[in-house]
Write a structure and sequence with these properties.
The structure is a homotrimer of 291-residue chains.
Chain A lengths: L2 E7 L7 E8 L23 E6 L4 E7 L8 H15 L19 H19 L4 E6 L3 E2 H9 L2 E5 L5 E3 L11 H11 L1 H10 L3 E2 H7 L4 E3 L4 H13 L3 H20 L2 H12 L2 H18 L1
Parallel strand pairs in A: 1-5, 5-7, 6-8, 7-10
Antiparallel strand pairs in A: 1-2, 2-4, 3-4, 8-9
Helix pairs in contact in A: 2-9, 4-5, 4-8
Organism (chains A, B, C): Oncorhynchus mykiss (Rainbow trout)
Keywords (chains A, B, C): Acetylation, Fatty acid metabolism, Isomerase, Lipid metabolism, Mitochondrion, Signal, Transit peptide
GO molecular function, one term (chains A, B, C): delta(3)-delta(2)-enoyl-CoA isomerase activity
């Protein structure tokens, strides 16, 4: 049983429910009709909930964003555990959302976190599965990274939603592999402008520069993703996988040979007093906006 | 006498007549008013027919696609002989169309064929001549490769025609230099989507992603190509050639230093039982469609 | 006092006044209310005039193009002296316009000139300042290079203005770093077409391929540039600068490790009899057009 399709619903910064659907090619063979991983989780507000629908072979992984969207190392860890559990059915791969979990953490904690982010991206961008991002919320920073790590992006045509690698706006810098993924998606110039200004794009603007592939009414995001899924599943797996690897290998190899330096660089940057001040201000701004 | 422009009519999978026009800068000096190479050809259904019009200095090379468009090593060879003959007038360079000639062949035959395909692409993509693809038919796979190997692409605005590197759909994989040529033409993201799904684009969609440069009514493809030709001929040859080389050298060098590995890779892939089954099914589907 | 924004008005080949505005982040601290560098200049027709407006913190650097727009080594030198003077206020960086100053010069002079062009581009493309090109005239060749060396391009929507790296039309070849800058701006395919044909784009066409970012009525070029400037200044400097460097470093390093070879190549090419003939014809054509 090989998992072939991932549907992913990126979380909204307003805390909107996010979903990640994992499609098993041979879903009907799945043993667990409703595999709710959060039941293993002591948290009363579980970060992740997974339901595998045997009739469609689609496992829906829901990501409930915590306040100020601070999806941290905890989330990454929980996410990975969940995915490993699903992988016991050989039906899944790792995905994630990261946003701003590096405020007020020790260098060790930051390094650990960043390694987890790298791991998530390496697995997602290099996944043999066809991966489709179904974006029904805003996707700043890590949410955007996760989206552009997929094979195809469908976004809700909702004027309140935005998407982008906005790190620069927060005084931090998207690392080279965020940049490479963005360049691969929207080209060098749009990536340059986007990263230098830390732009968040409205859905129509995101479509215009190619940051997403398709806009649909919000209530059709899931069904469109499922229709798109069928199209991708109709392509011979082996040829598609080799082709995908050919397209992405160089970008992935670049991080693989620079992981440690990238972690060191991230930690030394993020633990700077000035950066921490900048992040604190940003988090407070987000909190006050919600209040 | 130096040949400066190539007009190329890609063959339709429906067997529509395809043409390759070779323009001699000093056409009026040409010795042979109508240089019909197929007269040297014993075949009663010649694959290639060349006519050199002295009044315009344009040699028209017509490619009549055989059933199921299986333009094989035979075609490549005949094509090269024809071009060598034309080169005796110092008026031409090599071009080709390849589609699906690697079904049911021995590994040696496949290797020989693939080397010829490489040769064709190296000559075309690196040609000092200005090369203009005038596409009046569908251009899947090798036909598309030939088109994107040219300097400019004019396509008939006919809803029945499509163009694309659709190898993935057949269960095979476009090699890295097909991919590089496509990336150079439409950018990384459009190439990725196109190759992962093996997409064939309608003429308007091809224009939209930049796979072709211009659409014109079918009966104006040739005249538009000739007008475009004049524009290209007005640019100083030397500067244009150095510029073209600067743009394409890196891509060409990459194949040059990997030819043997690329052939080995192609042969070992294409002779796999599973791939041969997939190709047989595709050929049968094409045959039944024509029947 | 750190200079953060550069406004640049590219010169028109028709001799239209061109302006370069240099914005000081802490302009109000500036000592010189009107810093007219041309007063140091014996020329009765100064090439460059700088006025620093204390109320806005914007220093306006005006470039008056001489006949046939032959902005030469003299101009580059004068420009650099002016900028050094402004830098005494720590408020500025170097910029330039080069067009066709290499006709009829000795190899030594050509080499010296080319080195100055390299220097200008290295400083501009790698500048820590946000740089905005406000284009209120035609920007062929070096003018275009200067524009695409900036971070953002605003062009007057005037049908008489064009922009492009048109070197090929003159029988010369844009060097690899012109090409790299253009590829980074408009992508590989548009750059290829543009460079092979030496195309000059009308304002709308330039917008379409991404050679400029925005068109505005001619009388709004400056105000739009100033509005845009505010947007860029709102982004944390440090993050923007690191991001810019990440985007451009590879391209800059490529020239840095090939400067001598690039100069040698340029000089040997430009001093060829055939090229000099071609340039003379071009200059004469420009002169007769003005007469």
């Amino acid at each position: 049983m090989l998992c072939s399709i991932v549907l992913l619903y990126c979380c909204s910064s307003a805390g909107v429910l996010s979903q990640l659907s994992i499609h098993s090619r041979h879903g009907r063979e799945c043993v667990s009709p409703c595999f709710s991983l959060q039941q293993r989780n002591n948290s009363t507000s579980p970060k992740i909930k997974v339901d595998l629908d045997n009739s469609t072979g689609v496992a829906v992984l829901r990501m409930q964003s915590p306040p100020v969207n601070s999806l941290s190392l905890d989330f990454l860890t929980e996410f990975c555990i969940n995915l490993e559990k699903l992988e016991m059915d050989k039906s899944c791969r790792g995905l994630d959302i990261i946003t701003l979990p590096m405020y007020g953490k020790s260098p060790e904690r930051c390094g650990e976190f960043w390694k987890a982010v790298q791991e998530m991206w390496l697995k997602l961008y290099g996944s043999n599965m066809a991966t489709i991002a179904a974006i029904n919320g805003s996707s700043p920073a890590g949410g955007c990274l996760m989206s552009i790590g997929c094979d195809y992006r469908i976004m809700a045509d909702n004027p309140r939603y935005s998407i982008g690698l906005n790190e620069t706006q927060l005084g931090i810098v998207a690392p080279f592999w965020f940049k490479d993924t963005l360049v691969n998606t929207v080209g060098n110039r749009a990536a340059e402008l986007s990263l230098e200004l830390g732009l968040l794009y409205s859905a129509p603007d995101a479509l215009k520069i190619g940051l997403v592939d398709q806009l649909v009414p919000e209530d059709q995001v899931l069904s469109t993703a499922q229709d798109t899924m069928s199209k991708w599943l109709a392509v011979p797996d082996h040829a598609r996988q080799i082709t995908k690897s050919m397209m992405r290998k160089q970008t992935i190899d670049k991080l693989l040979s620079n992981r440690e330096a990238d972690i060191t660089n991230f930690v030394s940057f993020i633990t700077k007093d000035s950066i921490q001040r900048s992040l604190r201000m940003y988090l407070e701004m987000l909190k006050s906006r919600k209040a």
